[in-house]
Design brief:
The chain contains 14 helices and 18 strands. By secondary structure, the protein is an alpha/beta fold. The structure holds NADP nicotinamide-adenine-dinucleotide phosphate and magnesium ion. Magnesium ion binds next to helix 9.
Length: 406
């Protein structure tokens, strides 16, 4: 065995729950620690620990990412009423992802992991379509009224400085109906724009942004204006040098063009568009377990994770002593994404090169037909395809990696 590769700066390691917690340890023990001399700042966001610390551990983890700039996170349970009972919790703690996102003011970007023998359902998609969703405001933070009968529906803004309120009639109702008020803030849209440009520049891919500004001439137009100004002020020169472009179009035009494209861009989406389109992309590319996710803050903090949850059903089988066939690709790619970024910031290309080899070893394993159950269902048919269990899948990747490192 050759000498271990040194990772200069500690990595913020955020552990989680259930089956992903089980796989997290396997990934570290089998695929990382034998090769890397790596320190981590460890935060246990397992539900028990969050309950013990009154969720302070989540806040500490987010602040650690601010300090070190790069972290990697396992999937965590967002407790509901059932989980409160199951874990005997003090209360129904908030989603850790939400808490971390708020502290870092970050945007979540997702991208599929492509292998040759799993074809996207859209046949001309050759490269990953990355998606960035603005996760603040609009219909997700609205007020709604069920209109009982005839009357006037209005929208009113009352300035804090005592000036005249601004008032508009939305509809003079002749009978029952529904009414909704939504908002966004310049600050949140600016952070979103900054994160999108930072991500696209980091990945060296074009960015597409789409709204419905022909219809929504003030609200959606504000998004277009802020993106435009952020681009002109901070990115135009950098983008031109890198040979990448910023493209704005209407959401319906974007949808039509995306279907005919070969992929390979970042698609920046407003909150609702991103909610809908990210699920469409995940299923069109094959599996949620083949989807990476990274939280990028406008201050250039990065938190890498898998797009899927804790795979609860598999965990109960595992606890019952049964073998599962759970896919660790997205978790492995969370680690490699984190290591590549760490290597880049530390100026240690050997760390990035190791991460690259680990990715190739993982992709090669699936391309050789060694698969977990979820992949077997969507892969091209081949008599050599073989379903393996969670642990054997990682052992195959390790064998592949050892060959690449020789
Ligand atoms: P999930 O964990 O993503 O799993 C849903 C289903 O998708 C699984 O039952 C499994 O299908 C399949 N699947 C997902 N990941 C897989 C993998 N790596 N390998 C193989 N199959 C995989 O979603 P969930 O069951 O709705 O949520 C479970 C818990 O995760 C919840 O407590 C939720 O709060 C949490 N969650 C956390 C995050 C996060 O931290 N990022 C995100 C989402 C959800 P089959 O059972 O058919 O095999
Ligand atoms: Mg959705």
């Amino acid at each position: 065995m050759t000498e271990k590769i040194k990772v200069k700066t500690p990595i913020v390691e955020i552990d989680g729950d259930e089956m992903t917690r089980v796989m997290w340890k396997m990934v570290k023990d089998k695929l990382l620690l034998p090769y890397l001399d790596m320190q981590t700042e460890y935060y246990d966001l397992g539900l028990k620990k969050r309950d013990e610390t009154e969720d302070q551990i989540t806040i500490d983890a987010a602040n650690a990412i601010k300090k070190y700039k790069v972290g990697v996170k396992c999937a965590t349970i967002t407790p509901n009423a059932d989980r409160v009972k199951e874990y005997n919790l003090k209360k129904q703690w908030k989603s850790p992802n939400g808490t971390i996102r708020e502290i870092l003011d970050g945007t979540v970007f997702r991208a599929p992991i492509l292998v040759k023998n799993i074809k996207p359902f859209v046949r001309n998609w050759k490269k990953p379509i990355h998606i960035g969703r603005h996760a603040y405001g609009d219909v997700y933070k609205n007020q709604e009224i069920a209109v009982p009968g005839p009357g006037k529906g209005e929208i009113v803004f009352t300035p804090s400085d005592g000036k005249e309120p601004i008032r508009r009639t939305i509809q003079d109702f002749a009978g029952p109906g529904v009414l909704q008020g939504i908002h966004n803030t310049d600050q949140s849209i600016e952070s979103f724009a900054k994160a999108c440009f930072a991500y696209a520049f980091d990945q060296k891919i074009d960015i597409w942004f789409s709204t419905k500004d022909t219809i929504s001439k003030t609200y959606d137009a504000r998004f277009r204006e802020i993106f435009n100004s952020e681009y002109e002020t901070n990115w135009k020169d950098k983008f031109e040098q890198a040979g990448i472009t910023y493209f704005f179009t209407l959401i319906d035009d974007a949808v039509a063009r995306i279907m005919k494209s070969e992929g390979g861009m970042l698609w920046a989406c407003k909150n609702y568009d991103g909610d809908v389109m990210s699920d469409m992309l995940a299923s069109a590319y094959g599996s949620l377990a083949m989807m990476t996710s990274v939280l990028v803050s406008p201050d250039n903090y990065f938190e890498y994770e898998a797009a899927h949850g804790t795979v609860q059903k598999h965990y109960y089988k595992h606890q019952a002593g049964e073998k599962t066939s759970t896919n660790s690709m997205a978790l492995i790619f969370a680690w490699t994404g984190c290591l590549k970024k760490r290597g880049e910031l530390d100026n240690t290309p050997e760390v990035g090169a190791f991460a690259q080899k680990l990715e190739q070893a993982a992709l090669g394993t699936v391309e050789n037909g060694i698969m977990t159950g979820d992949l077997l269902e969507v892969a091209d048919e081949n008599p050599n395809n073989k379903k393996v269990n969670t642990e054997d899948f990682m052992d195959h990747i390790k064998q592949n990696l050892d060959k690449k490192l020789q």
